[in-house]
Amino acid sequence: MTQETYQDMCQSCGMPIKKPEDYGTKADSSQEYEYCTHCFQQGEFTALNITLEEMIKGCIGIMVQFGMPEEEATKQMEALLPTLKRWKEQ
């Protein structure tokens, strides 16, 4: 496996990936190194039909729960998510 296959951030939601168990899984249950376990399991996105706008809104909610001001979370997610692999490929 090459170094470039590992990501330190989920390419769907932007979540930092810090531990092996944070990675998603492929259809054969091996680790998927581009997406987190919340976004990708058993070779599929967990929310197949979610839109970019819905993902941004959901991520903002989680960031606010962790103590980030909503305005800052909105600014960060609106800037980051459209640049991630899942959303650039649409």
Number of domains: 1
Helix content: 25-40%
- Indicate the mean pLDDT: 92
Enumerate how many helices there are, as a single number.
3
Protein structure class: alpha+beta
**Rounded Rg:** 13 Å
How would you sum up the global shape? globular
Number of strands: 4
Strand content: 5-15%
**Topology as a string of helices (H) and strands (E):** EEEEHHH
What is the rounded distance between the termini?
26 Å
User: Main beta sheet: strand number and arrangement?
Assistant: 2 strands, antiparallel
Task: Name the strands of the widest sheet in spatial order.
Answer: 1-2
Low-confidence stretches: none
Walk me through what this model shows:
The protein is α+β, with helices and mostly antiparallel strands and 90 residues long. The protein has one domain. 32% of the residues lie in helices and 14% in strands. The protein contains three helices and four strands, in the order ββββααα. It has helices spanning 52-65, 70-80, 85-88; strands at 23-25, 31-36, 40-41, 44-45. Strands 1-2 form a two-stranded antiparallel sheet. Strands 3-4 form a two-stranded antiparallel sheet. Helix 1 (52-65) runs antiparallel to helix 2 (70-80).
What are the salient characteristics of this protein?
90 residues, two-stranded antiparallel sheet, 14% strand, alpha+beta, 3 helices
